[in-house]
Amino acid sequence: MEKKNFAVLGLGRFGKNVALTLENLGYEVLGVDKDENIVAEMAQDLTKVVSFDIRDAHALRDVGISDIDVVVIASKSLEASLMATMLCKEFNIEKIIVKAIDERHAEMAKRLGATEVIFSERDTARRLARRLISKNSSDLKEIDEDIGILSLEIPQKFIGKNLIEANFRGEYKLNVIAIKSDEKILVTPSPNHVFKADEKIFLAGTSDSLINFERALGIF
Fold first, then answer.
1. Which residue, 70, 51, 73, 72, is CA-closest to 62?
2. N or C: which end of the chain has fewer CB within 10 A?
3. What's the pTM value of the predicted model, to 2 decimals?
4. How far apart are alpha carbons 88 and 106 in whole angstroms?
């Protein structure tokens, strides 16, 4: 399977971090910014970096934007971001990810062809807030933007109950993916497993479900 290549349009703090991370992971990255100083600064760090206005269709065509698999549009300018989104759609880019300034920007970007919209500062703030209000934050591992795995000692409420009786899925919208004791680790445990006081459980679900679970049991 051929490895994907990427373009990042707008090399502010967010765009720069995305581009450098992808490049460091071994992917080819085209960086574009109208600020020549930024372009010069990153010339040695990216596969290719050029300076032009991302609203310029001819310039995008000349750098081979139509051959790019994934484009990340990270411009701070609403007009430039929306124009670039529309142009990338016209160039038949498979995946167009837009960093939105606000909800209005997000809605317009989707209408113009964005396949995904992100709010970097907002989403980062939400993830931080979730971790701050969790007593078990050191054991909360995020595996996606809104999905996590929480590990904790089995709450008193569930000791002596089996997995069916505990009803994690029905009551808390969580899945028990593993149970650990001093003796062993059970992965995808049997529904008839009876919880013991010395066990640790691993729960998977949305970040909100995990926080609501802790709130319901009064353990944060």
1. 51
2. N
3. 0.62
4. 16
